[in-house]
Specification:
By secondary structure, the protein is an alpha/beta fold. Helix content is 30%, strand content 19%. It is built from seven helices and seven strands; from the N terminus they run ββαβαααβαβααββ.
């Protein structure tokens, strides 16, 4: 890959060197329970390792039409008070998110201030909103979100230039081979 994608992507990207300017304070990475975006988790941990920034592994696949990953205080009295924001590994385990808890714990063992979060809604927009609420200054996303099909577009799981421009954070895209790109 030469760093530029053809018209099949919603976002044009260029090859990234090292996106860490004078040190990030918070990184939020778009991952999933099944490990499809493991390359994103690896890159995010690498970006956070050796720094004092907080890393939040955002499980985008936890959003479901059938269940809420974390019940809202309205739907279950006191449930919202039982969990932090972001979530510790033990909280992720209590919520049945073993794989995400393991990734968070592994990052902590590398000295990273790592946490997790479970998406309540599908798509990149809720991810970017969450990153904004956490005052993230770097988000790490899988480059393949720019290559999604009709079903994913209907669910909002597609990168688009407008959403990224509104994010007001540094965006790092990572492909399955570990190559890093910035959106143009």
């Amino acid at each position: 890959m030469d760093g530029n994608h053809n018209g099949s992507h919603a976002v044009d990207v260029r090859r990234a060197q090292d996106p860490r300017p004078a040190g990030h304070t918070c990184i939020v990475a778009y991952i999933d329970e099944d490990g499809e975006y493991e390359h994103v988790a690896r890159e995010a941990v690498a970006q956070a390792a050796g720094s004092e920034c907080r890393l939040i592994l955002y499980d985008a696949a936890s959003a479901s039409a059938f269940t809420e990953p974390i019940a809202s205080p309205v739907s279950a009295e006191g449930v919202g008070e039982q969990f932090g924001d972001p979530l510790r590994p033990d909280e992720l385990l209590r919520l049945g998110r073993t794989a995400v808890a393991g990734r968070v714990e592994a990052a902590r063992q590398r000295g990273v201030d790592a946490w997790g979060w479970l998406a309540s809604d599908h798509g990149v927009d809720p991810f970017l909103e969450y990153a904004k609420s956490q005052r993230a200054d770097l988000v790490v996303l899988p480059v393949e979100l720019g290559e999604t099909g009709l079903v994913e577009r209907m669910l909002g799981e597609r990168l688009d230039t407008e959403a990224l421009e509104e994010a007001a954070v540094t965006v790092l895209l990572v492909d399955r081979d570990g190559r890093r790109f910035f959106p143009d």
